[in-house]
Amino acid sequence: MHLSKELDGLLRDSYIEKVYQLEKKKFKFKIRHRSLGNLSLILSLPNFIFLSSYDWKSPEKPSALAMRLRKLLKGCKIKKVEQHDFERILIFELEKKEERLKLIAELFSKGNLFLLDESMKIIALLERQEWKHRKLKLNEKYEFPPESFSPSKGYDAFKERLRSQKKRKVVVALAKDLNFGGILAEEICMRSGIDKSRSVDELSLDEVQSLYSVLLEILSLPTNPRIILSNENEAIDVVPIAFKIYEGKKFKSFENFNSALDEFFSKKELAMVEKEKLDALEKLLERKKIQENLIKEYESKLKDLKLKADFIYQHLHEIDALLSEIREMRKSSSLSEVKEKFVGKKLYGFKILSLDESGEIEIEYEKSS
Predict the structure, then answer these.
(1) How far apart are CA 100 and CA 89, in angstroms?
(2) pTM, 2 dp
C-alpha cells in the first residue's frame, strides 16, 4: 500500500524505454522521466519492486520475453500505479497513442507478470498458470485471484474470516488467511497484547475487536521507512513504519519507502554478485594452482623419462644382448629355471632383480668399479 502510492507519484507520466529480463523472474524496466531522467524499475517476482539508483547489470542478449515486452511497451506512458485492493498485486496503467494497456505484477505465491490489452486479454506473460478457479494463459482474459479479506470490508468481514480459521494459531491466520504477511501479523498480535500462538477459537469477541482496531491503527500510521540493523550493523529487514516488534533495534531512516527498499535489496544483490565474482575468481586461482602443480609434476616425470631414455639409448647393445639371452633360454626352459639362472646374477653390467610370466624384467645398472 505504501509502495504503490510512492511509485504512482514517482512514475506517473514517465515513459518505458526498454525491458531487460535479468533472470527468470527478475526484470529491469528502463524508465524515462521528464524531470528525473533515466530510472530503473526493478521487479523480482514474487519478492520486491522498486525504483533503483544502483547499477543493475543487464544481460548482453535479451530473452524472447524481454524482446516481446520491448516491442509492446516501448514508448508507453505510465498513467497510474495502483495496488489491487489489499492483494500483493500492482497494476501499471499504460498508454501508447490511442492504445490502453495494463502491466500486472503479482507479488504472491510464485509470482507472475502479465501484459493486458484494453479488453483485459493477456498478450504477454511470464508463466502460464492454471487452478480450478483461475486460468492464466496467452490470449485468455486475465482474472484476478479470488477475493480475499480487505480492511475496507469492515469489522464483520474481519471477524467472520478470522473465526473461520478455528484451529489456526492467531498469527498464522492473520498472516495467511487474512493475507497480512508474517511481520504485520506479529505486529498486530504484539500491539493487541494477544499471544500469537493461541488458537483462533480461544479468542473472545473483545480480543477479535482489539485485533481489528490495532490493524486499522497500524494502517493509519504515517510512513517512517527504515532498514532494521543487527548488532553487527547488518541489514535484516526493511519496513515502511516503526514496528514495535523491532523496538530497541538499530535502524537507518529513509525519506521514502522506495529508497529504503532500493538500498536494502540492491546492496544485497550487489553483494551477492560481488561474492559470486570472488568465488569464481577463487575457483580460477585454485584451478590455476592445480594446473601449475600438474605442470611441475609432468615436467619432473618428463625429466625422469628423458634420463631413462638417454640411458637405454647409451646401453642399447648390452640391454638387447641380455634380453636375447633370456628369451632364448625361455624357449626350452621353465620360468623357475630361467629365474634360477638369471635372478640375482650380474650380466652385461646389469643385475637382474626379477622377472615374471608376463615377460617383465627388472634390472639394475651397476657401474664398474
Answers:
(1) 19
(2) 0.74
